[in-house]
Write a structure and sequence with these properties.
mainly alpha; Cytochrome Bc1 Complex, Chain D, domain 2; 8 helices; elongated
């Protein structure tokens, strides 16, 4: 039994050292212009989810959900997030597919995470994805305004929907037909 355990440990060490050797000698691809393999995406996103669950404080948004805060969130999103995550006029980002993994389009597919988690992601970023930590560039209030917008993008109050439509030429969550009409 002792020889079996020793054999298992030696095998694991060889596999780990072999993997490290392949990585440090440049045999593993590091290009960002390819689609990540499904297994890699699943493992990486699982790690991101588990880390956020473990480390993100369960805080409540200190801002009231007002039309002004949501409109400010739209302006902040447009200036800081749209380049990577898609603009509020519902056009996809030109850079999204250049990231590895690709940046999600937060307008066409808003996050369904709790606000504390969205805020944590904005504040701390996500390592090795290109998603920066915004806590040194935006105030806490600004990060909460973006969080509020993303959390309520599919259920904006009527006044904010009108502001959205006036500012971006499409209704929030507009269908492809609305997008085609806007492009004419």
């Amino acid at each position: 039994m002792g020889k079996f355990i020793l054999g298992a440990i030696v095998t694991l060490l060889i596999l780990i050292l072999g993997g490290l050797g392949l990585a440090t000698l440049g045999f593993l691809p590091t290009t960002a212009n390819v689609t990540p393999p499904r297994m890699e995406s699943r493992i990486a996103m699982g790690a991101v989810d588990a880390s956020a669950e473990r480390h993100a404080p369960r805080v409540t948004n200190p801002l009231q959900l007002t039309d002004q805060n949501l409109e400010d969130g739209m302006k902040l999103y447009t200036m800081n997030c749209a380049l990577c995550h898609g603009s509020l006029d519902q056009k996809p980002s030109s850079l999204s597919k250049s990231f590895y993994p690709p940046a999600p389009n937060l307008v066409s597919d808003p996050p369904d995470d709790p606000e504390w988690r969205t805020f944590y992601t904005i504040r701390t970023g996500i390592r090795y994805t290109g998603m920066p930590a915004w806590e040194k560039a935006l105030s806490e209030e600004e990060m909460w305004k973006i969080t509020s917008l993303l959390s309520h993008l599919d259920k904006l109050p009527p006044g904010v929907q009108e502001y959205y439509k006036t500012s971006f030429g499409v209704a929030p969550g507009g269908s492809n037909e609305q997008k085609k009409d806007h492009d004419k």
